[in-house]
Amino acid sequence: MDNNNILQEIYACKDCKTCMDYCDTFMVSNDLLKSPNGRLKIAEKIFTNKEISEEETIGLYTCTLCAECDLVCEQNISISKIIYSSKIKLVEQNKAPLAIHKKIIKDIMEKDNSVNGNPGERLEWLPEEFRDEELYEDKESDTLLFLGCMSSFRVKESAITAYKILKKCNYDFKIFKNEPCCGEYIYSAGDINLAKKVFQINSELFKSKGIKNLIVTCGGCLYAFDQVYPLYIKDYKIKVRHIVDVIYELESQNKIDLIPLNKSITYHDPCRLGRKYNNGPLYLEPRALLEKCGLDVKEIAQNHSECPCCGAGSGIRGVDSSISIKIGKKIFEKVETKEIASSCPLCVFNFRYVNYKTQSEKEIKYITDYILEAYKN
Ligand code: SF4
Ligand code: SF4
Questions:
Q1: Could you tell me which of 79, 209, 284, 345 has the fewest CB atoms within 10 Å of its CB?
Q2: How many angstroms separate the alpha carbon of residue 232 from the centre of ligand 1?
Q3: pTM recorded for the entire structure
Q4: Residue 178: what pLDDT?
């Protein structure tokens, strides 16, 4: 967005405050600086070259970029895009990102992951029985199962189960021994120049390894590879699919037999598979698969495009984890079942963190855990 368009949109705001009723970071903090309307006022200062305070910078960086506010603004203001553009502007002025982002970005550049994982342990999730036969980059396949930092290091069962399901279906794919970070964290922090370099390096890597298709497990990787890379990389022709979409197709082709697990679970829609997924959304497919697993799928009061963010989007946990906990707790209060399923490992990770911090008794699983369990039976 260019500066004039941004200011025009900001000036179109009628201060009706409707957006504030939909913004979880505002609802749990009651802080105007952490509301869509308040963030637009911070953006106005930035785009008219006024100084902003440290609290206002934090106001911007505690936005999960969930885009829920965008859906309800009657003035059609692209609120989350303006918040994001403000971050870019702050980085250009050397006023951002925050120290925590700089540390994580340094880790990404040095260790190829955003979760401070030991690069030598990236493949620890790979089941023993596949280690001898796995050819990694050398396998003749143009399809890469890209696990990403969260699945590789923090929610390893999402990597294991996704991999095993594809193997059981004899799906043609390969994995990388030295997988890079997709760069979404750097992009979200507003460091667009560095993010573009990472996108370029990764695109060249994919090209050199003959990759034409990517299958991802993480909502952040899906967003980066599918929505963001094409904006910045010339001739980017990689087809990107989420693992749920691929398994849904395999099941529709009768390549997967699922046997009922017979229990109730609640499905949470990740923002980046829903309202932030231009080539989606994936609402029907995960529910259909879970139902095929014999699960009674319950809903959170607001679902699909209105589903609240898990509370962890866009690096907010590092800035103020108490907001992530409060948002997650609010979601738990609306969930009747003990078990919650998600198709994003970051959502799973945050919900598990909330579960621990609030001493709740929820059990949070990645969607392919259920599918493999039903498949195994
Ligand atoms: S994108 Fe989400 S967190 Fe950010 S202001 Fe809008 S509703 Fe609030
Ligand atoms: S809903 Fe739109 S017009 Fe109303 S306060 Fe929010 S940004 Fe302004």
A1: 284
A2: 24
A3: 0.96
A4: 93
Q: How far is the CA of 51 from the centre of ligand 1 (A)?
A: 22
Q: Is 40 near ligand 1, meaning CB less than 6 Å away?
A: no
Q: In the Cβ-directed half-sphere of 74, how many Cα atoms lie within 13 Å?
A: 5
Whichever domain contains 300, its CATH number is: 3.40.50
Structural domain for 260, as ranges:
251-376
Task: With beta carbons less than 8 A apart as the criterion, state whether 174 and 145 touch.
Answer: yes
Ranges in the chain, pLDDT < 50:
none
Residue where a domain stops, chosen among 74, 92, 110: 92
**Ligand 1 contacts CB of residue 79 (under 6 A):** yes
pLDDT of residue 1: 80
Tell me, using a 6 A CB cutoff, whether residue 68 lines ligand 1: yes
Give the domain-ending residue among 92, 113, 131.
92
Please choose from 65, 305, 320 the residue to mutate so as to test ligand 1's pocket, defined by most ligand atoms within 8 A of CB: 65
